[in-house]
Amino acid sequence: MPTAACSNTSRKSEIIMTKKDFSIAVFPGDGIGKEIIAQALKVLNFLSQKIDVNLRLDEESVGGAAYDTHGTPLPPKSLDMALKSDAVLLGAVGGPKWESLDYAVRPERALLGLRKKLGLFANLRPVAAFEELLHTSTLKPEILRGVDIMIVRELTGDVYFGQPRGVKENNGQSTGVNTMIYTDDEIRRIAHHAFEIARSRKKNLVSVDKANVLESTELWRDVVTEVGKNYPDVALGHMYVDNCAMQLIRNPAQFDVILTTNLFGDILSDEAAMLTGSIGMLPSASLGSDHAMYEPIHGSAPDIAGKNIANPIGTILSVAMMLRYSMNLPEKATFIEKAVKQTLKEGLRTKDIYQPGDKLVGTQELGDHIVKNLRKIFN
Asked: Do 119 and 291 meet the contact criterion of CB atoms below 8 Å apart?
């Protein structure tokens, strides 16, 4: 898995590691959230015995579960805990149960609220094709082999937060409005972050926009180009989002770092997830100046909740990203990734990545086996 972090994040991590205590706000959320978070906590509890940091784990509710209890998807107590923590570990939020609610109190508002209140502007989504899972993807193995992409998604702008927004009635006609908006400062901030990451990888960055028809992304292209002049060692290219979507399927190995907007990043990263065979495989890190949140990129999957069949790997790899970006423990992060890879090499699979000849296991068993392999690596 990629190991790049921007210099600002690294400096902040070094400061954090002078502390003897590291607090993690744990939000299981809805659907399969509790099941996958339970496996991540197994890894964290094991690590607490192996690293020279006291891990404090505090759990609260967010999303639909919080709405059912508190009447809001992001209770003040949960937000306060997140703001006071060194990192947030999130499961998933949402589900059909709450789809009839007003947008202001739907479970997804907890996720957007956390991103906004914590100032999380950079979303990192690594996409790596495991050799052991090449045959589970719908694409040919020769197309996937060697794929290692870091998608850098801007997280606090675009249509998700732009104003005005909403559905209004006028003379019997309903009109839905969302505003796609970016400032040059917002673009410049995420661009610097992406270039720093590209500089520590293969020094190749593709910025994705729709500058031919959207003025907000015309500005995006101009600012990214300007920022790129500060990184002469990084090759910068531009690509329209529709072409990028096609190229991710046609020739994904051409990409190293993809920088893009909030909306486009949301869509492209889910598409890229299928290169790995399952969306359950992908972790993510959302970073800001003072806070960080880690979560798998998949949803709450309420249709399989409680059945012990959900894939916990994306969540466990999110813990690895936490060690790398927030705790400045890249070697220990690599240990987690090696334990996952070894488990896959041994043929253990949850239902979403199972193929004939593999060993089908449940969520809990896969989590236990990853910890077993992690223990071997530490010893």
From this structure: yes
**Contact assessment for residue 233 and residue 195, using Cβ atoms and an 8 Å cutoff:** no
Task: Tell me the per-residue pLDDT of 156-166, one tens digit each, with 9 for 90 and over.
Answer: 999 988 999 99
pLDDT value of position 16? 42
Whether 325 sits among the annotated catalytic residues: the reply is no
How high is the pLDDT of residue 17? 43
Q: Is 158 a catalytic residue?
A: no
Alpha carbon distance 46, 33 (integer Å): 20
Helix (H, G, I), strand (E, B) or coil at 118: coil
The reported pTM is: 0.88
**Among 12, 42, 210, 332, the one annotated catalytic:** 210
Q: Do residues 203 and 232 lie in contact, with contact meaning Cβ atoms separated by under 8 Å?
A: no
CA quadruple 213, 155, 105, 216: dihedral, nearest 10: -20
Tokens of 166: 């909403």
The DSSP output letter for 81 is H
The single residue of 209, 266, 352, 358 carrying the catalytic annotation is 266
